[in-house]
Amino acid sequence: MISADNLKLTFGKGTPLENPALRGMSLTVNQGEFVTVIGSNGAGKSTFLNALAGEVIVDSGRIEVDGQDVTRLPTHKRARRVARVFQDPLAGTCEGLSIEENLALAIKRGQRRGLTSAVKRSYMERFRAALAKLNLGLESRLGDKMGLLSGGQRQAVSLLMASLTPSSILLLDEHTAALDPKTAAFVLELTQDIIAEQKLTALMVTHSMKQALEVGDRTVMLHQGQVVFDIAGPERKGLEVKDLLDLFEKQRGLEVEDDSLLLG
Ligand SMILES: Nc1ncnc2c1ncn2[C@@H]1O[C@H](COP(=O)(O)OP(=O)(O)OP(=O)(O)O)[C@@H](O)[C@H]1O
């Protein structure tokens, strides 16, 4: 379960570039819920995920994961609770290490690390079985460097890494955006399977309105660092991409209005 209460975060405080990215962001995500997150550029989606992961520390507000206050914990102290897959397939894995070594690091996430002890024979069968499920033939390429894999293969391995150890929450930041449509569909299906199988609590940022409505159980829209729209259940099922786009445009319209007020 994730509970974010009234998060505020301003970048570049006291400088001409002062930028309030989170302006009272509150969201509760129940155990096992899969929430899609949309919002225009600069709405605060990545900043919110970064705050949950500990990449940035909020100025005020409170973040709880499974009831534990993690608001001020650094990333490495949350690593066992928070798994993440990024938009850039290069971001979540270590290209100079082999598939096997990457998986071994993932299994030791949040614990003291040591590569020599990490790459243990006991893990190998588990890795092979997990990789075989991807149907990409990677189970026979455990020794290959991550850098040799395609973007889609890397994202698939990143997802596997995120799910190897039981984490409380999974954060997906436009993780299919850099992939071609066919590979994106494959990775998205894999995502849904892993989340359902492991009953993960997940947040997925996407720019695709279609994806936002078709995937997961609930959709939230962020605008100017706040949740402006939150829909689930039958109400969400009745919503079409066009409705969501209209809402989106309405929010962007407000933004223009705000700007014109400021400039006026
Ligand atoms: N490290 C940073 N330093 C300064 N400003 C930042 C930083 N990270 C984000 N911002 C600013 O905070 C605001 C929110 O950015 P964020 O990346 O969270 O938006 P987003 O909704 O993820 O946008 P996009 O869809 O374009 O990825 C933006 O104005 C952005 O420029």
Layout: helices, strands, pairs:
Blueprint: E1 2-11, E2 19-29, E3 34-38, H1 45-53, E4 60-65, E5 68-69, H2 75-78, E6 82-85, H3 99-107, H4 115-118, H5 121-132, H6 151-164, E7 169-173, H7 181-198, E8 201-205, H8 209-214, E9 218-223, E10 226-232, H9 233-237, H10 241-263
Parallel strand pairs: 3-8, 3-9, 6-7, 7-8
Antiparallel strand pairs: 1-2, 1-4, 4-5, 9-10
Helix pairs in contact: 3-6, 6-7
Bound molecules: adenosine-5'-triphosphate.
Residues 11-12, 19, 21, 39, 41-47 line the site of adenosine-5'-triphosphate.
Question: Could you explain the architecture of this structure?
Answer:
There is one protein chain. The protein is an alpha/beta fold. The protein has a single domain, classed as P-loop containing nucleotide triphosphate hydrolases (Rossmann fold), CATH 3.40.50.300. The protein has helices at residues 45-53, 75-78, 99-107, 115-118, 121-132, 151-164, 181-198, 209-214, 233-237, 241-263; strands spanning 2-11, 19-29, 34-38, 60-65, 68-69, 82-85, 169-173, 201-205, 218-223, 226-232. The strands form two sheets. The chain has a six-stranded mixed sheet with strand order 6-7-8-3-9-10, sandwiched between helices. Helix 3 packs parallel to helix 6 and helix 6 (151-164) packs parallel to helix 7 (181-198). It is globular. It starts with a strand and ends with a helix. The model is unreliable at 258-264 (pLDDT under 50). It binds adenosine-5'-triphosphate (ATP). Residues 11-12, 19, 21, 39, 41-47 line the site of adenosine-5'-triphosphate.
